[in-house]
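Supplementary Text 2. Reproducibility record for the structural model of the 367-residue chain.

All settings were left at their defaults, and a single model was retained for analysis rather than an ensemble. We include the record here because the model underlies the residue-level annotations in Supplementary Table 4.
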Amino acid sequence: MYNAQPTFQNIVQSQRVVNDGLMDTVSEIRWNKDLFVTSSWDGYIRFYQTQLQSGYRANIQVDFKTAIDCQEPILSVCWKQDMSMVFAALADNTIRAYDIKTQNNAIIGMHDDCPARQVFWNEDLKLIISLGLDKKLRFWNLQANGLGKPQPAFQLDLQHIPTVGEQSGNEKFFAYADIDNKFRWLNWSVLRGNQNSGASRSFFNMEDNYLQGQISCVGITENASQLAYATVDGRAIVKFINSIGELSTKLQFKCYKEEEEQKVSQYRTEKISRMYMCNTFQFNCRSSNWASTCGSEGTLAFWDIGKKNKILGVKLDGPIVAGQVSQDGQIFAYATGYDWAQGLDKVGEFTNRVGVAYIDDKFIPSY
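Retained model, structure tokens:
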């Protein structure tokens, strides 16, 4: 199912990083300008810098710069917009802030009994937002008093345990999925003046998951005009967001379906369909009709969602567990490793690696 070596047909990509000491799977990738940061289950936040020479003889390089030892598995990481800090959600239930220059860290938040699934910085609110597995969406002040257990600036109570969430690039819009297979979203502006409201669940719009499987990833465009979610059985749906935050479906498609021949007797074979988990869904600021997905079966795919076809499929040597498009839409950073989609039998079969690929103009819809 996986290629021994990546086959990047007509796509410029870097050599994958081998000097970063990555010992376990990457949990998240986040960009800020020409740098991206990864969080990993091995307890390290790692920083990488890219160099791109575009044009006819395009060339791209990625260099590992440094790492911060968090001493706990890391579920999520994000940047402060000015690049002075990163924030991380750790397995010990804490939310920590790390100073880039000094690497000093401080506990700025904490969840009860469970860690946060994801963490986000919001420049407009000047708050760190943590999506907790304890059914709390908490907002933390960076200048909070360091004495005793951290207390959130405010919090929203969630109805069910969240599975995955995302914030738009302009930091205006937020969406998440939960274990009840509901999809919920809001514009942060509805919170202004309502931080002490007891009816926090009513802030969210909600709809049932249109697809069959559990939602595995969420994507939102930079300007919050479109969003998408994809599932553990390889399906995705893209929706428009109107000016008052209502959703309408643009398209629905199967990202990761493979037809395989299976021998059922000595003389007969039959075709079976296998669906694989979609681990990331990304948009691109260069075109509202471009999207990318990363699959558990090892394919990085670029899509023209306006014409409803696949632009490119790149087969890697293992499941693609994380990925994100750079803020200028030029580079795709990804990580391979094992995502546990195939159970214990596949543990130890795949190498944990980080790499980048150049998103050439020819892969961007021009209409």
